[in-house]
């Protein structure tokens, strides 16, 4: 399959600070890609370079075969871009703004009105076309920005943090809109919200410190972390009795035993992938007359991948560090 976007050894330097550090990746047509990373990871800088808003210190960006530095007009013709703060004019109506933006984008005069109608219907703002943008909710202003990005029917739609500042209902509406764009368009979505990327994107690129630290589908990235399985048990008995009963289980993995706030004994066991210790745990504990009151298993999630690869801490880890 031909790559629609090719980013090769991209570097962006601000004095001694390197915002993007030797970044390379490719994007295939018709998919939704997620740029995932903590604040300051280089997501917005990379998008600004890909859309021609910023120049790179070194490296190349090629859109539909056109190098951004050498053929900027041809490359930009294939891109629709929504920055984190949509550049809309509050004293215009959505229709007026989209007509203005369409003229700047070079949409043919005879097709402009039909194109404005098309994108307003696609993004669900037709009923708002006579209201001033400044009087619209933030969710509808985001939709106006997406409408502008869709003008001219570009192959690539790049959206930088499109749900920041929206309420839960507006977030769901924008996510549904993004999903509807996949297939007909290639969408690149920047976000630091894990659930958003997991729910919307076909592929994920995780950035940290300006570098690409992992990429793949959400499922592939979760499998990347599934080097081990973890099992949690609540057992009726004493910690000493449970520890003694589980000595033989240590050949299957690491075992931690400690009192639990529920009044039972908590057991955490971690095994290598492909090893299921549940039958052995049941046999050992039942043989020692130690009833299992609860048993659950867990695997790595996209959040686990993100936290490990970016060096981010969970809220519990941060709180523990502050108290130490």
Description:
With 324 residues, this protein is α/β, with parallel strands linked by helices. Helix content is 36%, strand content 28%. The chain contains twelve helices and 14 strands. The chain has a six-stranded mixed β-sheet, with helices on both faces. Strands 2-1-4-5 form a four-stranded antiparallel β-sheet. The radius of gyration is 26 Å and the shape is elongated.
What are the defining features of this structure?
about 325 residues, about 35% helix, disordered C terminus, 14 strands, alpha/beta, about 30% strand, six-stranded mixed β-sheet
- What fraction of the residues are assigned to beta strands by DSSP? 25-35%
Radius of gyration: 26 Å
How would you describe the shape? elongated
Helix/strand structural class:
alpha/beta
Helix content: 25-40%
Number of helices: 12
Unreliable stretches covering 5 or more consecutive residues: 313-324
Number of strands: 14
Order of helices and strands: EEEHEEHEHHHEHEHEEHEHEEHEHH
Task: Let me know the average pLDDT.
Answer: 87
- Distance from first to last alpha carbon: 53 Å
Largest sheet: 6 strands, mixed
Strand order of the largest sheet: 6-7-8-3-9-10
């Amino acid at each position: 399959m031909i790559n629609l976007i090719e980013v090769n050894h991209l570097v962006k330097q601000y004095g001694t600070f390197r915002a993007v550090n030797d970044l390379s990746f490719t994007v295939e047509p018709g998919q939704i890609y997620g740029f995932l990373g903590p604040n300051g990871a280089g997501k917005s800088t990379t998008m600004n370079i890909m859309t021609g808003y910023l120049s790179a210190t070194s490296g190349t960006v090629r859109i539909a075969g056109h190098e951004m530095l050498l053929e900027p007009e041809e490359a930009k013709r294939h891109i629709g871009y929504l920055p984190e703060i949509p550049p809309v004019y509050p004293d215009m109506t959505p229709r007026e703004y989209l007509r203005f933006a369409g003229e700047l984008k070079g949409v043919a005069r005879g097709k402009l009105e039909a194109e404005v109608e098309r994108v307003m219907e696609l993004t669900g703002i037709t009923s708002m076309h006579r209201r001033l943008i400044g009087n619209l909710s933030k969710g509808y202003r985001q939709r106006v920005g997406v409408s502008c990005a869709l003008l001219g029917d570009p192959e690539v739609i790049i959206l930088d943090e499109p749900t920041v500042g929206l309420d839960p209902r507006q977030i769901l509406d924008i996510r549904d809109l993004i999903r509807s764009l996949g297939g007909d368009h290639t969408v690149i979505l920047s976000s630091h919200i894990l659930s958003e990327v997991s729910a919307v994107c076909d592929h994920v690129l995780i950035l940290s410190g300006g570098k690409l630290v992992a990429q793949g589908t959400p499922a592939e990235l979760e499998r990347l972390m599934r080097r081990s399985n973890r099992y949690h048990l609540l057992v009726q008995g004493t910690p000493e009795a449970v520890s003694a009963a589980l000595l033989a289980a240590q050949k299957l993995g690491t075992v931690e035993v400690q009192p639990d706030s529920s009044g039972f004994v908590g057991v955490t066991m971690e095994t290598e992938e492909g090893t299921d210790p549940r039958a052995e745990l049941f046999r050992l504990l039942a043989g020692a007359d130690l009833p299992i009151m609860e048993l659950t298993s867990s695997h790595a999630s996209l959040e686990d991948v993100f936290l490990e690869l970016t060096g981010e801490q969970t809220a519990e880890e941060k709180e523990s560090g502050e108290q130490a």
